[in-house]
Specification:
The chain is of the alpha/beta class. About 40% of the residues lie in helices and about 15% in strands. It has 15 helices and 13 strands. The chain starts with a strand and ends in a 12-residue tail after the last helix.
């Protein structure tokens, strides 16, 4: 059976690392020989160990592609493991690992691009993408559009295949749900989940909290996640007088419980390659409100499964939230339609089948209606 090595040097936990872990676990369950190379002590490494996957310690940095010792370690790793397919997720890993993998005799290299950011057309990228990478996975049509937007891009656009992030609904639905915090019976609970970094744009939710408070609306806004802006966001909540409405919950590992404790999910990100948490919220029958940007329109059907509003339009965002607060039937109906859309478009089985077809050189995008 084919052996697949997933490699990521990420120290933090995000959508790319979640994709690596869940995809590796699913392929392992299908009988493939799977291993995960990750930074020792990082969340991906620890979770891979707990999932029973072979976890291989990895040491890579932004400059590893010019470090002889790092490149020798990679070469020895590839020669020892002898994968048939190497799957990478970070650009720094691509620079270091792809050339060494080819020297070590790895037959296929697949690069997954999870961020909707352009790829520079320079000599290094032309070499990496044209000579070393066999296929590029984009997690949305928008990601594909952006990474192919160079004039020209540093690779043939037909190399890029769209495979949406999927969710194993059977496994997800079987996870236990518990109360994560005390709930006030007469309040509506609004929440978001993501790293507390600039692109996630949490500050606008604090501004929205002020709008809702001024209108006398009883609600709580739960912000789950950790990051470098935690102190600044807490200070903003204090300065704007909404400390009593906004709860910073830190890193939350139990995503299903967090989402089930909400009435409305809001994603204020300025951009997303895909945004796993959108489909997780929809799988929990929650209406989703987000900005009309990046991949959001591919996931959220405006007016049916949630609302899409203008980027950074705090008043418009507050207005849609107020509509949902005032209408329980609207929340329920949007939640039902959102769950149905996940089942139709973002089921993990469809995504896994598409990846398997790519791995086996038989890719077909029929798994995703509308692509």
């Amino acid at each position: 059976m084919m052996k697949i090595l997933f490699l990521s040097s990420a120290q933090t936990w995000g959508g790319g690392e979640k994709w690596h872990l869940e995809t590796a676990s699913a392929l392992n369950g299908r009988g493939y020989k799977v291993a995960v190379a990750a930074s020792a002590g990082a969340e991906l490494y620890d979770r891979s160990m707990r999932a029973g996957l072979p976890a291989l310690p990895l040491r890579l940095s932004n400059l590893s592609f010019i470090s002889p010792s790092a490149l020798v370690r990679l070469y020895n790793l590839f020669r020892r493991e002898r994968p048939d397919v190497l799957i990478l997720n970070l650009s720094r890993d691509l620079k270091a690992a792809a050339p060494v993998a080819r020297m070590a005799g790895v037959p296929r290299v697949i690069y997954r691009r999870g961020s909707a950011l352009p790829v520079r057309n320079n000599l290094l990228n032309r070499f990496l993408y044209n000579k070393l990478v066999d296929s590029i996975i984009a997690n949305s049509m928008e990601t594909r559009r952006v990474i192919c937007s160079g004039n020209p891009p540093p690779f043939a656009p037909e190399k890029v295949k769209v495979i949406y992030n999927g969710i194993d609904l059977e496994r997800f639905d079987a996870l236990p749900v518990k109360q994560l915090s005390a709930r006030l019976v007469d309040h509506i609970y609004i929440g978001t989940l993501g790293r507390l970094e600039a692109e996630k744009n949490h500050h606008i939710l604090i501004t929205v909290a002020g709008i809702l408070k001024a209108k006398g609306i009883k609600c709580r806004i739960l912000i789950a996640g950790s990051g470098s802006l935690a102190g600044r966001l807490r200070k903003q909540a204090h300065n704007e007088g909404v400390e009593d409405m906004v709860e910073f919950m830190g890193f939350v590992g139990d995503i299903r419980s967090f989402l089930h404790n909400l009435d409305i999910f809001v994603l204020p990100s300025l951009y997303e390659g895909f945004g796993y948490v959108k489909i997780e919220a929809m799988a929990c029958f929650k209406p989703v409100v987000a900005f009309h940007t990046s991949s959001n329109p591919e996931v959220i059907v405006d007016g049916e499964t949630g609302f899409l509003v203008g980027v950074n339009q705090a008043g418009e965002l507050a207005d849609r939230i107020i509509r949902l607060i005032a209408d329980p039937d609207l929340r329920r109906n949007m939640g039902i339609k959102g769950r149905r859309r996940v089942e139709e478009m973002f089921d993990g089985g469809k995504s896994l089948a598409a990846l398997e077809s790519l791995i086996n050189g038989l890719f077909c995008d029929r798994h995703f209606p509308g692509i």
